[in-house]
Amino acid sequence: MPVQDLSAAPPLIRLDGLSKRFRLPGGEVFDAVHEVSLQVRRGDVFGIVGASGAGKSTLLRLINLLETPDRGRVEVDGRVLTELGKRELRLARQSIGMIFQQFNLLQNATVFDNIAFPLRLHGRRSRAEVAERVAECLAIVGLTDKRDSHPAQLSGGQKQRVAIARALAPHPSVLLCDEPTSALDADTTRQVLRTLADINARLGVTIVIVTHELEVVRSLCRHVAVVERGAVAEQFALSEHGVRRRTSLGRALQRLVDHPPELDAEGDEAVAEEPEPAHA
Ligand SMILES: Nc1ncnc2c1ncn2[C@@H]1O[C@H](COP(=O)(O)OP(=O)(O)OP(=O)(O)O)[C@@H](O)[C@H]1O
């Protein structure tokens, strides 16, 4: 279980009074996220859990303004994203990587070109610099030998690790993960979680992860927010044991924390270790 005092670290992400309302085809409105205020500390691994439709993905997508909030303020790494123009926002987004359940890779491009894509998009790097950064990212996710493969030739876990490498390429300070292991089997899930834990520990990249899998939260996260009907119903540190939680999901997670499953034969745990100050 990750035990780490991040209380002295300044928040990397500050959400203040965030709301997002969708208009449904029938004309009714639906409050997907309502008045959410939340802080995520630099270097943290922060989980967002909740029932289906609770607003987890919408909340995650509000952090990089993939969804535009109706109200509220989003600050990431000292920049108030909700006050930026389009061009400034595009630049600011380079410090926010994102990965998805379905990987979202370019099918007709090689692994190399998938990872190089965000670097080429934002220009200003020579071919040699792009190649060097792609090689570094491939090494971080342990896929150096897959450089010239196409996504169709990879397993699900390998595809997700390519997506992680692509997200890391522009040196983000935070990685947003939307159900990154939901399409994967248990063994592959463990591999991907180990990669994420390693990125947090070795590179100091802050991770925010939406998942419906409580075991993923237990094994990877240090803090968690439980979202119910678009609001944060409770949040807590996973290092605390034997505490009575307010929500049923919080209680289920606490039971898992208090009585973790047996480790496998290799003692495998995804758990993030103390991050170094270095950045990706
Ligand atoms: N573009 C949209 N237009 C209308 N309604 C939407 C839109 N996006 C999301 N919603 C609705 O907002 C609510 C929250 O969706 P969201 O995807 O954030 O939930 P979630 O907690 O991530 O759910 P799940 O675990 O099922 O993915 C849902 O009821 C969803 O149908």
From TrEMBL:
Q: Recite the lineage of the species.
A: Bacteria, Pseudomonadati, Pseudomonadota, Betaproteobacteria, Burkholderiales
Stretch list, region Disordered: 258-280
GO terms for biological process, alphabetical? amino acid transport
Entry protein name:
Cell division ATP-binding protein FtsE
Q: Which Pfam families match?
A: ABC_tran
Q: Which PANTHER family match?
A: AMINO ACID IMPORT ATP-BINDING PROTEIN (PTHR43166), METHIONINE IMPORT ATP-BINDING PROTEIN METN (PTHR43166:SF30)
Query: Where in this chain does the record put each ABC transporter domain?
Result: 13-254
Q: What functional role does this protein have?
A: Part of the ABC transporter FtsEX involved in cellular division. Important for assembly or stability of the septal ring.
Give the similarity note: Belongs to the ABC transporter superfamily.
